[in-house]
Structures are given as structure tokens and as C-alpha cells.
Design goal:
The protein is an alpha/beta fold. The protein is 33% helix and 17% strand. A six-stranded mixed sheet has the order 3-2-4-1-5-6. Helix 1 packs parallel to helix 2 and helix 5 crosses helix 6. The chain is globular, with a radius of gyration of 17 Å.
Length: 210
């Protein structure tokens, strides 16, 4: 295969399930840990990835991502580059609120959170332009340093949706049609400027018994 034909691959992994205190909560920048189930999910990811190899690995510095990546890095015998810009979005005044509380507290529908972020209607939330720019900065670095390689990226659900928005050139709010489960894997291939989503939201733990 010629170098021109070899794609750049992005393997995007969302962290595992978080501690039960944060279920159905807009966690964002809260640096929460994984639940016991989340640790099991991370182990299944490690088993699934153990026979593969990656040219470069990147991760968010947040605890839930570090805990998800740890068994995978051990199984792969590799290290990850920590990128601060891969942190989850800041939900402003929604941070720490449960989904069902949003309507009563702020008069908004929590299910439309991507649209609210895009439109800037969440008080004190990270501005969409700033969020998009920092994720783009990370993406540009990964695509530059990992050109024509296999790149593994451990991050967050909101970050994965922003990466999809940037790569597929679609509005961030429209990414609500892409489910991103805990400890799931999505894979994109980039070749000659063309982006193809070849795998989406595959969660190995769903197919294995604990």
C-alpha cells in the first residue's frame, strides 16, 4: 500500500461509567471517579485492545479518563500524551445538576443540551467558540503528529461529539443523533481529505459477561 493510500485513523474512546453520585448529572468539569462498573468496563476495553497496536495515544487529564485509560495502557505497554484541551465542556450553572432538575431550576429542557451550548443559553457555560477552538487545537495536533497512523484518544462524550462535528463538518447541536455510551469506541478514517466513520459507539463490555 502506498503512503498516499494509508489513512489516518482516530480511535475515540469515552471514559467508563462514573460514580453513582453523578449518574444523570451534568458533570462537565467535576473531576469524578469511575464506578465499580466503570472499572470493569475499562478492563473489558483493555482486553479488547490488547492485541492491537497504536502509533500514538492521547488522553484527557481528568480522573475518570485516566482511570479508564490505565488498564488499556498497561495491556498495550504504551504511554499516553496528556492534552489539557481534551477536558470535558464546562456546563456553567448546570454543573452538578441532575437532568430532571434543569426544567424546574432554569426552565429549559435538558435533552437539548447540545443546542443550548451551541446557542450560548446556559449561564456561565463555556462559550461554544472557545470550546470548539480548544478541541480543534487538540485535533489539529493529533492529525499532524499522527498523520497516516493509528491514534487512540481517551476523552469524554461531549468531546467526542465536538470531534465528530469538526470532522464531519456538521453543527454541534446535530450531534445529538450520535449516541456515545460509556466505555465505547468510535473509529474514523481520514484519507485524501475525506472522512469516514467506520465504527460508532461499539462498547465491548455490552457483549461480555462480567
Amino acid at each position: 500500500m502506498s503512503s498516499r493510500e494509508r489513512p489516518t485513523r482516530l480511535h475515540l474512546i469515552r471514559h467508563g461509567e462514573v460514580d453513582c453520585d453523578y449518574h444523570q448529572v451534568f458533570g462537565g468539569r467535576i473531576d469524578m471517579e469511575l464506578s465499580p462498573l466503570g472499572h470493569k468496563q475499562a478492563k473489558h476495553l483493555a482486553d479488547f485492545l490488547s492485541e492491537r497496536s497504536f502509533d500514538r495515544i492521547y488522553r484527557s487529564p481528568m480522573v475518570r479518563v485516566r482511570q479508564t485509560a490505565a488498564p488499556c495502557l498497561k495491556a498495550l505497554n504504551q504511554t499516553a500524551v496528556e492534552l489539557e484541551d481534551l477536558c470535558e465542556v464546562d456546563f456553567g450553572v448546570w454543573t452538578g445538576c441532575k437532568w430532571h432538575e434543569i426544567k424546574d431550576k432554569f426552565g429549559e429542557n435538558a435533552i437539548d443540551w447540545l443546542e443550548h451550548l451551541q446557542n450560548g443559553t446556559i449561564q456561565d457555560a463555556e462559550p461554544i467558540n472557545a470550546y470548539q477552538l480548544r478541541i480543534k487545537n487538540s485535533l489539529d495536533l493529533i492529525l499532524r503528529d499522527g498523520y497516516q497512523g493509528d491514534n487512540l484518544v481517551f476523552c469524554h462524550g461531549g468531546v467526542i461529539r465536538m470531534l465528530l462535528s469538526l470532522l464531519l463538518k456538521e453543527p454541534f447541536a446535530s450531534m445529538d443523533r450520535f449516541e456515545v455510551d460509556y466505555a465505547s469506541l468510535s473509529v474514523l478514517e481520514i484519507r485524501d481529505g475525506r472522512v469516514e466513520l467506520v465504527l460508532h459507539n461499539f462498547a465491548p463490555w455490552k457483549w461480555l459477561e462480567f
